[in-house]
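4.2 Preliminary Data

To establish feasibility before requesting continued support, the project team ran the inverse folding procedure on a target of 257 residues. The structure was first converted into the token representation described in Section 3, and no sequence information of any kind was made available to the design step. The complete token record follows.
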């Protein structure tokens, strides 16, 4: 499908690996200039298809740097057409094993950067009269999972923030949508099954089997499959779609709506 994204400028956070990296590659492959931030970014430029990835070092834990990121991109590239709000994942533990500092940490990982970047991007896009914001959350917003209370709680708040922005900006040419991935084969997912194997005294293969058993398609997702959904919602091909949440999970969430 022709997405019509070429020559635009995108910003993707937490994008050195996994879903963020796959998204940066997908958008660059469509001919965009993609600023991809992470702590390990080298500052290099990578040519991909007709577009490019500009790596930019940014630690989302640094609140001041995060607050200024959108302006940094606009100062350098003149505009911002697509903002993909990705964050690192939080700790996975039962609610009663978490201390207040875990909640504060997760707030600073999952909610604070989304509000800072989403607000800044919205202002720039409203001024431009055009733009698309895509928030990456998790199916755990729709179907909380054991051990996932930090993710479900703060991402529910981020999800409500995105839904509200969508309504407030709908008349200004700015669309705001959300992608909710299910289990996706990335370094993070590998780390989770390894941790579960250690905790449960099982093998990694046992833990993978347990995850996959609840997915009707019988497999994990691939990061590029999440990136495809993000690219669609970022593109003019979804021009009448705003305020929606697209689940990409091989059928794992059972809710009908
Ligand atoms: N994989 C799944 O099954 C799945 C399912 C649902 C939701 N999610 C969520 O989707 C998001 C991405 O997941 P993933 O699996 O792609 O994760 P991943 O493979 O672990 O990648 C995490 C990315 O976050 C960056 N990062 C970590 N800490 C950072 C910081 N303080 N500042 C800036 N960047 C930082 C990492 O880059 P550096 O280390 O270079 O900074 C890396 O690029 C997470 O929030 C995760 O919870 C994942």
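Position-by-position output of the design step:
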């Amino acid at each position: 499908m022709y997405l019509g994204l070429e020559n635009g400028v995108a910003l993707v956070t937490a994008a050195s690996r996994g879903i963020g990296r796959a998204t940066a590659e997908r958008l660059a492959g469509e001919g965009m200039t993609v600023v991809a931030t992470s702590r390990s970014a080298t500052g290099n430029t990578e040519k991909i298809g007709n577009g490019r990835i500009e790596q930019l070092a940014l630690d989302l834990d640094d609140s001041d740097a995060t607050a200024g990121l959108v302006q940094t991109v606009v100062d350098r590239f003149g505009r911002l057409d697509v903002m993909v709000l990705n964050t690192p994942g939080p700790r996975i533990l039962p609610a009663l094993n978490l201390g207040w500092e875990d909640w504060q940490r997760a707030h600073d990982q999952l909610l604070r950067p989304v509000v800072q970047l989403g607000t800044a991007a919205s202002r720039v896009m409203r001024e431009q009269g055009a733009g698309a914001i895509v928030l990456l959350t998790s199916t755990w917003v729709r179907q909380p999972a054991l051990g996932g209370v930090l993710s479900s709680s703060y991402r529910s708040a981020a999800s409500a923030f995105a839904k509200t922005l969508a309504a407030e900006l709908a008349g200004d040419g700015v669309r705001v949508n959300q992608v909710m991935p299910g289990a996706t084969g990335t370094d993070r997912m590998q780390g989770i099954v390894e941790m579960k194997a250690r905790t449960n005294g099982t093998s990694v293969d046992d833990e993978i089997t347990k995850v996959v058993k609840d997915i009707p398609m019988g497999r994990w997702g691939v990061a590029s499959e999440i990136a495809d959904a993000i690219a669609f919602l970022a593109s003019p091909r979804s021009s009448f779609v705003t305020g929606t949440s697209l689940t990409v999970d091989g059928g794992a969430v059972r809710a009908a709506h």
